């Protein structure tokens, strides 16, 4: 198996260095033009690809202009507009409720604190972190999506299984100036090489420092199962 560096902090910095070289233009892939659009796009992206979300929001954002429009539309109509998105009924409900709260409690503006964002329906810490980082330029955590979760375990950066404890581990070893970019780098590498089911370890820039590398390791540390 690959040999990770001596400390997790050193391992994290080496991972960042290599992935920055491999993906120099890494950034958020969701398309949006304002804070509300970003919030809704991230809510829709849960267990759904960004590519699919971008395809659907192109039409959605043309139809709905501002939180009032989402709050006023019926559950049935909004759900129909989202019917190619996973869990579209629940997401329609969350969007309508969140927009109602934004109108009633935040003067129609997407809030800019973690506590206020996570009080909105359908908004957890991951979604709130994305909105804070990209809509408000506030970086107070690391977005842990499925790619970050998988790569951070495979690379030996954490033994935790769930997003919030993984985030806490990563915040202790990833330099603060890279908290935002770390997520984008992991997403790009997770899509291109370190996929969930069949990672291309033979062509991976991290293979020699990855304790999960196929061919060397018998275990995928992301799942705890044998390759």
UniProtKB/TrEMBL annotation:
Instruction: Tell me what organism the protein belongs to.
Output: Natronorubrum bangense JCM 10635
| Co-factor binding details | Binds 1 [4Fe-4S] cluster.
Q: Which GO terms describe its molecular function?
A: 4 iron, 4 sulfur cluster binding; class I DNA-(apurinic or apyrimidinic site) endonuclease activity; DNA binding; G/T mismatch-specific thymine-DNA glycosylase activity; metal ion binding
Encoding gene, per UniProt annotation: nth
Gene Ontology terms describing biological process: base-excision repair, AP site formation
Function noted in UniProt? DNA repair enzyme that has both DNA N-glycosylase activity and AP-lyase activity. The DNA N-glycosylase activity releases various damaged pyrimidines from DNA by cleaving the N-glycosidic bond, leaving an AP (apurinic/apyrimidinic) site. The AP-lyase activity cleaves the phosphodiester bond 3' to the AP site by a beta-elimination, leaving a 3'-terminal unsaturated sugar and a product with a terminal 5'-phosphate.
The catalytic activity of this protein is classed by the Enzyme Commission as: 4.2.99.18
Q: What is the official name of this protein in its record?
A: Endonuclease III
Family that this chain belongs to: Belongs to the Nth/MutY family.
Q: Which HAMAP family match?
A: Nth
